[in-house]
Sequence to fold (326 residues):
Amino acid sequence: MLSRPRRNRKNSAIRKMVEETIIRPSDLIYPIFLNHPSIPGSEIQSLPGIYRLQLEEVMREIEECIELGILTFVLFPVVPEDLKDKTATYSYAEENFYLTSIHAIKRKFPGIVLMSDVAMDPYSSDGHDGLVENGEIINDKTLAILGKMAVAQAQAGIDIIGPSDMMDGRVGFLRNELDSHHFDHVSIMSYTAKYASAFYGPFRDALDSAPRGGDKKTYQMNPANKNEALREARLDEAEGADFLMVKPALNYLDVIHLLKQNSVLPISAYNVSGEYAMLMAACEKGWLDYNTAMPEMLLSIKRAGADIILTYFAKSFARLYKEELR
Ligand code: PBG
Fold:
């Protein structure tokens, strides 16, 4: 036998040397849920280990993550019902706690990368990412609202905006709005191929942002489609996106691979709330081993072609990574 692949697996030093896929904590983006100041922090029931935090707690969390090598964070606001309306006006109101918190976080940690979510759902009394009129999501009127939201976030000091709304033409529209307000340095990580997925359930629990009527299928993509992901990717590239994202990650590894092969932009993947919940539940039951299953999950996403992973596992992975270096 000339070729014996097992020789390259014979001890852990060799296995490390021939390892093809490596995840560093700095490849990960950690999602953080920021509570309205009037509501105390609380654990999210369907996301064990993940909390809705007060600003002070967010500061501590970021500090701990920096120690572990995580440098990028995506912030989501938990907005009380009475601040929601049909046109998401609170999203760009001057006193908005999300905007003032972005400002405070960047002042305290100028070296981190802070990313926002651009979509109407946390602020919408309809629970949709776009403006609802007569039961329909109105694309171009939504763009105007998203534009105000993005500019307000840029004014607050955001580094990357993350349009997660799936309206047509939003990347170009937002790029133009940012540039014309002198925010040409603010990046856009577009949720390029965002599918109408069942795996966002725990996230919507966290924000209490589920659609009050209908579903998101007229704007989020059909899980059956792949060519459409490429079409969205071409549009986002042409419209000036700095990063392309696939969401969710695990059921869409083929889509991650496809975009990686067809773009020179950095590809990110969102390992969403339902994927986290699924693994946590199995581990709680003792059916899977967390410390080996969790990194295997993240490896599969990176191996498929994701340069960057948004994941609720970020902090926990970084802890394991640090221990392994010892
Ligand atoms: C809002 C948004 C969603 C997620 C990120 N941004 C939910 C949705 O589209 O309904 C989901 C993230 C997750 O499940 O972890 N536009």
